[in-house]
Amino acid sequence: MPVHDPWSGVARHLRTSVSPQEYETWFAPLTMRLEESRAVFTVPNRFFAEWIAERYSKLLNEALNRELGRPLDAAFEVSLEQVQAPLVQPPPTRARLAGAALNPAYVFDSFVVGHCNELAHAACLAVADAPGGQYNPLMIFGGSGLGKTHLVSAVANQLVERDPASRVHYTSSEAYSNELIQAVRFDGIHNFRDKYRHVDCLIIEDIQFLSGRERTQEEFFHTFDALFQAGRQIVLTSDKLPRDIPGLASRLRTRFEWGLLADLQTPDPETKVAILQRKATDKGVVLSRQVASYLASQPESSIRVLEGYLNRLMAVSRLRGAEADLVLARQVLGPLASERLVAVDDVLRAVAAHYGIRPADIKSSRKSRDISRPRQVAMYLARRLTNASFPDIGQALGGKDHSTVVKGVQRVEKLLAQDPELADTLRAVENSVRQDKQGE
Fold it and tell me: How far apart, in Å, do the first and last CA atoms of the chain sit?
């Protein structure tokens, strides 16, 4: 007759009560044995015991009661293997911590500056010249493929070039979280803290992925405070403003807003042309303005995608031994670009979802402000993101006259100079449209 394993039942209850990540981090390493009035859990280290006792004692007791049918208290003991194992202390390093994670091509000289990114560029230059100074922390935010990684990598590269002994650590929030989990599981939390709290500059990309990770957020909160109080530079990137990151602790949100928030906007056609020509030059290719303008006219805000178009064009040009002219560009890129075309209906759905209304409301004749503003936003973005004419947009919005669309677009353009929140709204809706198209 098989022996009943009470831990497997307790674990089953726990799995239904916490997220998969929480379970794998805090409960998967545990073992359990039963005593008269308590269940004793063997944990990897004392930090584990303190954290589970503080956060999960009630949950453990409930799971024990449900599985065993009687009340039991949860107690903890540290594994003897962990107690007896010598702690390996890595040698201290003053060298650059960013290592191979940094792209040496991402420097300020290769970054094309336009109206869409001049504030972020200037802020990163200032940080590279005087880390820990006026702009600390610095958060660069904007959609995918607009240059966040290039700018913050340029900061790291310049700091290290100026002082090779400078302790600059460049990582992502995902890597930070995974490293923390490993440190907790294998009793390396002190080494982890020593590594992150004694750098000269900490750069973390995609900080929005801290969303909902309470343990990681708590650890990063203390890391942030330690660095800030010591006058060390903190640079973050995100695809959205701190206030728009769901599940972000308020104390972290306010700290992210202490310094400077600098956004990267969708580049205008002239800036796109300049960027494409610069990237072609870096590849040893001369790209005519005509071809660059054709690439820049594609309905795609991400420079990363446009660079992919450029790479494809260059590859076919070399393969065929043909000039990368406009004829070849249309042959090679036309089918690819058409697949990613944004339609007016795509814009309508995204605008309606953002404002919590229906696309039919936008198409209606209602003139109340809660409908007219979303309608104007839809007109503006449809003109910006699609190839549709003013009459086409009017037709898609319920048969509106083209002059109505023109006035709606002009109204939004005027409001943009007065209402920063409207700019945030436009950016959020545009990012939603882009992400939906990329996910198709």
Answer: 53
Taken as a whole, the chain contains a residue count of 440
Cβ–Cβ under 8 Å, residues 116 and 236: no
Name the one residue in this structure whose structure tokens are 């300049």: 274
15 exposed, middle or buried (CB, 10 Å; 0-12, 13-18, 19+)? middle
- In order of their start, the domains of the chain are 6-84 (3.30.300.180), 99-264 (3.40.50.300), 269-339 (1.10.8.60), 344-438 (1.10.1750.10)
CB 166 within 8 A of CB 201: yes
pTM to 2 decimal places: 0.61
pLDDT tens for each residue of 106-132? 899 889 888 888 899 999 999 999 999
- What single-letter amino acid sits at 291? V
Q: Can you state the angle between helices 173-185 and 189-196, rounded to 10 degrees?
A: 150
Q: How far apart are CA 307 and CA 150, in angstroms?
A: 14
What is the per-residue pLDDT for 340? 55
CA 257/CA 251 separation, integer angstroms: 10
The per-residue b/e assignment along 124-160, b for 16 or more CB within 10 angstroms, e otherwise, is bbbbbeebbeebbbbbbbbbbbbbbbbbbbbbbbbbb
Q: What is the CA radius of gyration of the chain?
A: 27
Question: Would you place residue 236 in the very low, low, confident or very high pLDDT band (cuts 50, 70, 90)?
Answer: very high
Structure tokens at 7: 């831990």
Q: How far apart are CA 397 and CA 365, in angstroms?
A: 10
Both tokens of 89, joined, read: 């202390």
Q: Could you identify the residue written with the tokens 């990598």?
A: 153
If 0-12 CB within 10 Å is exposed, 13-18 middle and 19+ buried, where does residue 275 land?
A: buried
pLDDT in tens, 3-20: 457 788 888 888 888 777
Confidence of residue 231 (pLDDT cuts 50, 70, 90): very high
Kindly indicate the confidence band of residue 159, based on its pLDDT and cuts at 50, 70 and 90.
very high
Q: What token pair was written down for 267?
A: 């580049």
